[in-house]
Amino acid sequence: MQRVAFKMYLKPGFEEEYKKRHQTIWPELKKLLSGTGIRDYAIYWDRETNILFAVQKIDGEKSSQEIGVNPIVQKWWDYMADIMEVNNDNSPISIPLEEMFYME
Q1: Alpha-carbon Rg of the chain, whole angstroms?
Q2: Residue 42 phi/psi, 5° resolution?
């Protein structure tokens, strides 16, 4: 099992829309994430910087970036592109974070 953390950037003024979209996350996307071993996935928002901090556990060797070729994920990226800072392919700009401490 891997623990992965990363940060993304929310555009100012879209906090409620971001929450709303994730409260109604597509069932097929949730199934895909679970099916690739991603679980215990949480995203936190820093109000001062508009940085989204995400942490997830992944069973197996697959990374969350590897599922980016899936059409469901690409459709989700397109759906979220108007409220987040994104790359040219509409994937969210995502900066991996190094784990400095963990307590189970």
Answers
A1: 14
A2: -135, 145
Q: What is the pLDDT of residues 40-88, one digit of tens each?
A: 999 999 999 999 999 999 997 766 567 889 999 999 999 999 999 999 9
Catalytic residue annotation? 22
Contact by Cβ (8 Å): 11, 83: yes
Among 67, 65, 42, smallest CA distance to 55 is for 42
**Domains contained in the chain, CATH given:** 2-97 (3.30.70.100)
**Token output for 68:** 């980016």
pTM of the model: 0.90
In the chain, the amino acid numbered 90 is N
| C-beta neighbour count of 26 within 10 angstroms | 13
Both tokens of residue 60?
A: 């197996």
